[in-house]
Structure formats: structure tokens, C-alpha cells
Design a protein that fits this description.
The complex is a heterodimer of chains A (about 375) and B (about 375). With about 375 residues, chain A is of the alpha+beta class. In chain A, about 55% of the residues lie in helices and about 15% in strands. In chain B, α5 packs across α7, α7 packs across α10 and α8 packs antiparallel against α9. The chains are: A alpha+beta (about 375), B alpha+beta (about 375).
């Protein structure tokens, strides 16, 4: 895989080494020292076993166990995600998650039930949901930060609620109304909000990525989507010219030969899948690198990322294929393999300086945010 | 590693032999402090940190998190902070006989590490999910749908119709004679139906929908002009009977209930499917729901075939109607209409026709 060494669980953090006069080319933050790659030391097999047992227990307990299962899988993933040999920590209490699940589950059920039968009620619920979304996201960021730790010290999120509304509500509206032109900007603002609100103990997280890089990533992704469209158009055209189908004035396909539109669909589906996977990989790799290359913790710790777009594309293609062939059973394997690829692309200069951080005073945080983010699948996409 | 200031009291320095190596993370700094955890008498543990006097720990105030493969044990201290312990066997030997608190899930790793148990878990999960999908959810949705008051169905139908009127429907363009004719066929079918809601016919022009018919939960049945133009009178009867089947079985309400249940179960089972670069993740809910609506179509078909048989015929008119609809919409038939139905509609129409033919052969 990468050149990242699979560090075992050595109990001692790496020794402090600081070559004199070593300078970084990055404008900010200024740090010294060799980059230390992040490593993932878990395995697909172990994670799959945990996941399958979770699944069975969740079903046997009518869903109650889901909160415990979530904590267990997160603790495994975080714990095996190592920086300088030390694993990350996940501290959330299952009962807190469960409370959030129940609340967001009730809202989801109300919305879905209203869905087809009471369009007016469902529109009202949708508006309420959209109005609450920035608040839920804000809660979720706080909850997740507070429950993520490294070296025993927890992260904190201090972004303001007001700003969450500006970014996640007005920003989302603007992005939606701009025919997609503002989507990269919106995504940039979302991540800037999420990252720059974080601190590691008393050390603030510094976010320096420019929106320009997000536009580059978006343009590259669009190229793949466009190629997919062209490919599909070309296929439909070819089918039409071969006299297999005709296209009526409503844009629907009509068979000339029985089953030929099924055949066309079978040919289009893989093209669409591949184009989407490639486009998504281009976007994810571009934004991931943009974010982590300009990310710092305090003045002396700087992240870097070298995620290869092609390797991520290959990963996504494999994920698609495996999930389809196994009817979703391969989920744990795809999850770990993707996680490892992302984690091991990251390296950090000045890891030893992290040990200088000290705790900031704690505050109480509800679990509603986290649960809502998984039940509604609000991907925080960091 | 910082050695820390020398304490003025106690006996700092080397820990006694025995016990296990630990590292203390106090939660107030990002620093690991190495030390040893040893027995300090019959009832207590002692924590020896480098350069500090030993600290007494009451075992009852220690909480062990559930262990995970490949990761150190995490022992939470009452006053905050945690001990990380790599030597599991050593720790278990040390605390033998002590009543430390253990969080739920201590035995999980033993289950997870046995292939046989994991396989059983997988079978339980798959079996339970299958049972839920094919039996549990339909049964529960049926029970709830049966008990829905007529009023709520009427409200739901009103709202749905209002939406459709503004989005898809125009007033019918059929002439009065044709309208009266369709109304008469509609009325003639009603006496053959079991007790149910009050059925009403609505004729609408719907260029976007093509030849189509749809049933609202409260008994209103919308028929598009294109459908009237496409079908022979007996075929139209058959399609109407099919729609009545949907109404009587309350398929609309059932579908909503089932879809909600499927969504909730999926959210629980696979909370975070995103981030894998797979639109495959959006596929399961769609396919699962399509499975349900196919089942409802088959049910309504059977209902119509049964009525047609009681009226002295067979399901021929319905088969012909399906065939025509399939050809006309280039895929979809009945209320599945629209380009979205392309995925499964072709084979499904063929299958539906075959199922109807089989029904006709069955003894009465």
C-alpha cells in the first residue's frame, strides 16, 4: 500500500527531534521536523466480525443495540487510526447516542409517514427540518468533537450557531439556486466552518485551504460526469440507429425488438456507476488534499495529504462492485479499505508539539446532533 | 517524557515488582505518563507513576471499557482520566477477585473472534431481516392500514389530488357522450364489489402521464383521457377493477407505512453508508420498495381477475390492457407509469400477464 509504516501499538510517543533551521514551504503554519505518516492498524476481517455481530445484536434487541454497536465500531476505527503510534479515541456514551436516535427516528418517521399521504403536512415538516438542520449540524459537530480524543485530550468545537445558519442554510440555498456554480464554494465554507471551529485542547485548528482548490476538484469531477453523460448518449444513439429502439416525443424508449431497452439499460448502468464513482473520487481526493495540506493545530503542527486520485477511483470502483455482487455484505470490507486509504494519505509535521496542548474547560453536550447526522445521513464530509 | 516535579512526601521512585505497566492519560494534558498498577493489599490497587508517590485506587471506582481486538485496555478512573494497559492477561490476573466495574460488552471480543459465532450472527441477521421484510413489515403495515379511519384517508386523498391537479391534470377533453359511457361502465361494476368506500370516477386529461389510471385511498379513481382512448370497454373495466383492488386492500397507505419501516430499519442497520463512493448505497431502499409495489400490483391483478371470473369471463381483458399499456408507455404500465418505472417494468408486465394466465387455469 502506501509507504506509511504500519506502526504497532508502541506505548511511547516518538522522541522529540528538531533539526535546527528546518523550514516549511507552506506559508502557514510554520513547523519543523519530519512528517510522520498516519497509519491504520486494524484489519478488514476484524472489523467485519465486529460489524456482523453488531448487526445481529441490533436486530435481536429491536434496534436498541445500534447505539452500542456504533460506539464499538467507532472505537475500533478510531483506536486503530494512529498518529505517532498513538491511537485516536472515541468517548461517546451509547445512552447519549440512543436518545438522539429516538428523537431523530421519530422525526424521520413522522416525515416519511406524512410523505405520500399528507403533502401539505410533509412540506411543513420539511421546512421545519430545513430550519432545524443548521442547529442539528452544529450540535453534531460539537458532540463529535467533544467525543473524539487523542492522547487522552478531547477535541472541542466552538463554531457559533449563528455562523452555522449562515453557512448551512443560506449557503445551501445560494448553492442550490446558482445551478451548481456555487456548490464548491458552499462545500469550502462548510468545511472551513467545521474545521476552524475545532481545537485540540487549547490549541486551535487552523484551516487554510482556498476555495479555488474546491473549484478545481469540482471541475475535474464534472469532467467524469460529463464523459458518463456523453457515453450514455452515444449508446442510446447507437441503439436507435441500429433500429433496436425508438425514442418517442416524451423522451421515453420504445422497443423495436422485444427486450432491447432492457439490454440498453444493462449497458447504461455500468457506465453510470463508473462515471459517478470516478467523478466522486476526483472530488473527494481533490478536496481531501486541499483541506489537509493547509491544516494545522496551533502554530507548530501541520498536516499534509497525498491522496492519489487514481487509487481512490480504483477503491471506489472496487467498492461498487463488491457491494453489488455481495448485496451489501461486503460493506465492512469496503469501509475499512476506504478508511485506510484516506488515513494513510495523511502525514503530520510536529506531532511532538501536540503533547503541549492542555485541556480547555468542558461543557455539556447532547447526543442529538450525532444521531441526527446518521439517521438523516447528513454527511459532514470532512 | 517529562519527569514532573519531585514530590515532597511519600516514597517516590521504583514501583514494587509485579503488577502491570500502564500509561495514565489525565484528560487535562496531551501527555502519557508511564507507571505501574500493582496490588496494594487485599482490597486496593496502587498506581505508581514515575517520580510520584503511589496513588491508592478503590477497585470499585474503576471502570473497564469493553476490550477491542488489537487495542489496549482502557480503564477509566473515577476522578477523570484513563489508564491504557497493553498487557491484558497481566491485568486480569491483577484484578482477580476485585469488583471493578465493567461496561456492557466485555464478552463481545470472544464472540467476534470465533468464526462459528460470527457466522451464526450473520445468519440471524439475514434471517431476521428477511423475515422482517417479507412478513413483519407487511403484516404490521396491513394491521395499521386496516385501522386507519376513513377521514384520514379522505384528507390524504384530498391533498394528493390537489397536488396532482396542479402538477399533472387538466380537465378532461372527452365529449359528453364518451364521458357518460365511461361513467356507466364504472357504475355497472360497483355492485360486484365487496363492501368498501364510496367509489367515484374522475376523468382527467394528463398529457404527462399518458394512458394511466390511479386510485386514491378514499375510493376516487382517476382515469386519463389517453387510457379511455387506448382501451376497449372490457379492457377498461378490467383496469378499473384492478384499481378497485388497490383501494380495497388500502395499498396506498400500506406502501407508505412499509416504505417508512424499511427506511428506519436501513438507517439503523447501516447508519453511515455514505463516503464509500457508491451510489449502490441508494439502491437497496429503491429496490426494496419496488419489490413491495410489485407485490401490490400482483395482488390487485388477482383481485381484478377474480371479479372478472365472477362476472362470467376470464382475465383476458386485463392481459390485453396490460399489453397495450406496456407498448404505449414504452415500459410502464398502470400506475407505475413514468420513466422511473423503466427499470423493472418490462419484465414485470410480461410476468404479470403470465401470472394472470395461470390464474385463469386454476380450478375455481
Amino acid at each position: 500500500m502506501t509507504d506509511a509504516p504500519h506502526a504497532g501499538p508502541p506505548p511511547v510517543p516518538p522522541a522529540v527531534e528538531r533539526p535546527p533551521g528546518a523550514t516549511s514551504l507552506q506559508p502557514a503554519p510554520q513547523t519543523h521536523g519530519e512528517p510522520v505518516p498516519m497509519a491504520f492498524t486494524g484489519t478488514e476481517q476484524e472489523f467485519a466480525r465486529i460489524w456482523f455481530v453488531n448487526l445481529a445484536l441490533t436486530i435481536l434487541t429491536l434496534g436498541i443495540y445500534a447505539a452500542w454497536g456504533k460506539v464499538r465500531t467507532r472505537r475500533y476505527l478510531y483506536g486503530h487510526t494512529r498518529l505517532g503510534g498513538e491511537g485516536f479515541e472515541y468517548h461517546a456514551k451509547p445512552l447519549a447516542l440512543l436518545k438522539g436516535y429516538l428523537i431523530s427516528g421519530a422525526f424521520f418517521a413522522a416525515y416519511a409517514l406524512a410523505g405520500n399521504s399528507y403533502p401539505v403536512l410533509s412540506a411543513v415538516l420539511l421546512l421545519i427540518g430545513a430550519g432545524l438542520m443548521p442547529w442539528v449540524l452544529w450540535l453534531s459537530l460539537r458532540f463529535n468533537a467533544q467525543n473524539t480524543g487523542y492522547l487522552g485530550l478531547r477535541l472541542r468545537f466552538r463554531g457559533s450557531l449563528q455562523r452555522s445558519y449562515r453557512v448551512n442554510l443560506w449557503g445551501a440555498l445560494a448553492a442550490g439556486l446558482s445551478f451548481g456554480i456555487m456548490i464548491p464554494l458552499f462545500q469550502h465554507r462548510r468545511r472551513r466552518y467545521a474545521w476552524s471551529g475545532l481545537s485540540f485542547g487549547d490549541q486551535p485548528v487552523l484551516f487554510g485551504a482556498s476555495a479555488k482548490r474546491f473549484y478545481t476538484a469540482g471541475a475535474l469531477a464534472s469532467v467524469w460526469f460529463l464523459l458518463g453523460f456523453l457515453g450514455i448518449g452515444f449508446l442510446v444513439n447507437a441503439f436507435e440507429e441500429a433500429g433496436l429502439i425508438s425514442v418517442n416525443d416524451q423522451g421515453e424508449w420504445v422497443d423495436r425488438d422485444a427486450g432491447s431497452s432492457d439490454l440498453l439499460l444493462a449497458a447504461i448502468a455500468p457506465i453510470a456507476l463508473v462515471a459517478l464513482a470516478l467523478g466522486q473520487a476526483a472530488w473527494t481526493a481533490g478536496t481531501h488534499n486541499a483541506v489537509f495540506r493547509k491544516l494545522g493545530v496551533g502554530p507548530d503542527v501541520a498536516f499534509d495529504a497525498r491522496l492519489s486520485t487514481f487509487r481512490l477511483m480504483w477503491r471506489y470502483l472496487q467498492n461498487n462492485f463488491l457491494l453489488l455482487v455481495t448485496l451489501g455484505l461486503a460493506y465492512p470490507w469496503t469501509r475499512v479499505a476506504t478508511w485506510r486509504l484516506l488515513v494513510e494519505s495523511i502525514s503530520v509535521r510536529g506531532v511532538e508539539n501536540l503533547a503541549r496542548a492542555a485541556a480547555a474547560p468542558p461543557d455539556a453536550i447532547s447526543a442529538l446532533g450525532d444521531a441526527a447526522s446518521s439517521a438523516f445521513d447528513l454527511d459532514l464530509g470532512l | 517524557m517529562s519527569a514532573g516535579p519531585l514530590p515532597s512526601a511519600g516514597t517516590p521512585g521504583a514501583a514494587p515488582d509485579g503488577g502491570v505497566a500502564v500509561r495514565l492519560f489525565d484528560g487535562a494534558s496531551a501527555r502519557a505518563r508511564p507507571g505501574r498498577l500493582v496490588r496494594g493489599g487485599a482490597l486496593e490497587l496502587e498506581l505508581w507513576l514515575e517520580g510520584e508517590p503511589p496513588r491508592r485506587l478503590d477497585p470499585q471506582e474503576l471502570t473497564l471499557e469493553p476490550p477491542l481486538p488489537g487495542l489496549a485496555l482502557e480503564l477509566l478512573l473515577e476522578e477523570g482520566g484513563r489508564l491504557r494497559i497493553e498487557d491484558r492477561a497481566g491485568f486480569e490476573a491483577l484484578v482477580q477477585g476485585f469488583a471493578i466495574r465493567r461496561e456492557l460488552g466485555q464478552g463481545l471480543q470472544r464472540i467476534e473472534s470465533r468464526r462459528r459465532f460470527v457466522l451464526v450472527a450473520l445468519l440471524i441477521a439475514a434471517g431476521a431481516l428477511a423475515l422482517l421484510y417479507w412478513k413483519g413489515i407487511p403484516h404490521a403495515a396491513g394491521l395499521v392500514a386496516e385501522r386507519l379511519p376513513e377521514d384520514s384517508l379522505a384528507v390524504a386523498s384530498d391533498q394528493a389530488l390537489t397536488l396532482l391537479e396542479s402538477l399533472a391534470f387538466d380537465p378532461t377533453e372527452l365529449d359528453a357522450e364518451r364521458r357518460a359511457f365511461v361513467q356507466a361502465r364504472f357504475d355497472a361494476l360497483l355492485p360486484s364489489l365487496p363492501e368498501g368506500p364510496r367509489y367515484r370516477l374522475l376523468l382527467r386529461a394528463a398529457p404527462g402521464l399518458g394512458p394511466n389510471a390511479l386510485a386514491l385511498p378514499d375510493g376516487r379513481v382517476v382515469v386519463t383521457d389517453d387510457l379511455v382512448a387506448l382501451l376497449e370497454p372490457e379492457e377498461l373495466d378490467a383496469v378499473l377493477l384492478h384499481e378497485f383492488g388497490h383501494v380495497i386492500e388500502r395499498h396506498g397507505a400500506q406502501l407508505v407505512l412499509r416504505a417508512t419501516a424499511v427506511g428506519l430499519v436501513l438507517a439503523l442497520v447501516a447508519g453511515d453508508l455514505s463516503g464509500l463512493g457508491s451510489i449502490g448505497a441508494g439502491l437497496p431502499p429503491m429496490l426494496l420498495q419496488q419489490g413491495y409495489s410489485r407485490g401490490f400490483e400482483a395482488q390487485a391483478d388477482r383481485f381484478a381477475a377474480q371479479r372478472l371470473r365472477e362476472l362470467g369471463g376470464d382475465s383476458g381483458p386485463l392481459q390485453r390492457a396490460l399489453e397495450k399499456l406496456g407498448r404505449a408507455v414504452g415500459g410502464a404500465g398502470g400506475e407505475e407509469g413514468g420513466p422511473g418505472a423503466l427499470l423493472a417494468s418490462h419484465p414485470s408486465i410480461r410476468r404479470r400477464i403470465a401470472a394472470l394466465a395461470r390464474f385463469d387455469q386454476e380450478p375455481r
